[in-house]
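Example with several molecule types.
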Amino acid sequence: MSRIRFDFEDNSAVRLDGVSLSYGKNEDILREVDLTLAQGSFSFLTGSSGAGKSTLLKLMYLALAPGRGDVCLFGRSTRLLKRRDLVGIRRRIGVVFQEFRLLNHLNAFENVALPLRVAGQKLASYQNEVEDLLRWVGLSERIGARPSELSGGEQQRVAIARALINKPDLLIADEPTGNVDPEMSRKILRLFMELNKRFGTTVVIATHDLGIVEEFNRPAYHIQQGRLRARRKGGAT
Amino acid sequence: MKRESPLLPESDAREAALFFVIGALCFLAALAALTTRGTYAAAAAWGDQIEGEVTVILEGTDRRIAAEVTGEIENLAGISQARLLSREEIEDLLAPSFGPGGLPEGLPVPMLIAVQVDMDTADPIPGIEIVLGEFGVAGEVGTHAGFAAHVQNALAVLRLVGFGAVGLLVATAIAVIAFATQAALLARRDIVNVLHLSGAEDRFIAALFARRFWGLATQAGTGGALGALMITALIVFLASSSAGAEAELLPRLSLDIWDILILFSTPVAAGLAARAAARLTVLRALKEVR
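Resulting structure tokens for the full complex:
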């Protein structure tokens, strides 16, 4: 029998309790995963391709529901929440996808403004904010460009700006440096560090680039065969 | 101030194909409905004409008395017209049996009175028989009752087949529109997902697509209905410019209020079908993600 837990002391941004998940009748892709990310933390999630990094992130940004266990976000269990309540939580989360997922018919400005627009805000109320954010990610000159007119790095920065426009409490990035050169990778990571430092945004980054994990020296978790382990400095788990 | 682009992209080739499918189906459905209605109206009018005509056959009398009898009959209540047929008209009627050479000179031919009966009043036949009695003329009143019964039976079958065919076509059109809408929408699934993950509510996304496909289907449906209107107008023109018997065979299309209603309701029905299909497809797609 499931228990409903009210944890008023919980100040975590993400807490996974015994989470398991499989696709269809296949073997579990995640097995009994326990993870707590404190609010304002900055963490890496590493693992080889197909290890379950993206699946774990999907649970965090509410694209998937766990087969077993519970996903708590901002101290609140999501298991028993109704769909309309999930929207409120989802708006506190910014997601950066490896493949960007920009809408090709919208320009950089409109892609960044998308989360505000779907929340019912009017253009006049967010125009300056969007322009400021695009300036911050170094795209003030590319504001009217469509994704097809932008380089991979520029598209990634638009995707980052879109994830940040809501001033999210939690930023989840799935291989954000997968499609950009090493220099741009470092720029993007520094951007996330600044965000974490300035606004206290909780940041989780999935990456297979262990060099970056070593270089930025932040807590890291390694996922292998569906099991999660804390990663120690030097790569040991 | 900037202008915002629509959240959904401009229509692409898939939607152009959907536009064509909806337009063609609406054209067929509207045309079928109009012509079925027109054909039924023509057949019903023909049936009324047969039922509303009585032939009085006078035997052993001369043309002068027959003319007087005709005048008396025309004065009866429920009779709109009575006309004594000429010998030439009678020969024309008998031509299928006797050939075009006409009747032999000495052959006695009965006098015929064609009587137009007002169907809304009481049965006028007893009145006609009284007139014949008053003039002391032997005669017979033919009501074409047997023939009219056959026509009524044929009309009933025509109505059943016609409305059944239209119903089937409309149901098929709605199903195809719903299916094609669903197929066109699946190609937009990436947009559905991005909007969902950007924090859009399910009903917001569903309304976005429902509006898009409502607009597309009503425009296509209007095109189809206009096509049907043009064909109908052509048939009306042909019918009005043709004085021959073939005009009787053309559907009796009048473009009256019911026809206009059919033309207006066609794009609305297409729009509603596409709108409902789009809404359901989006909501179903969203159910697959959390």
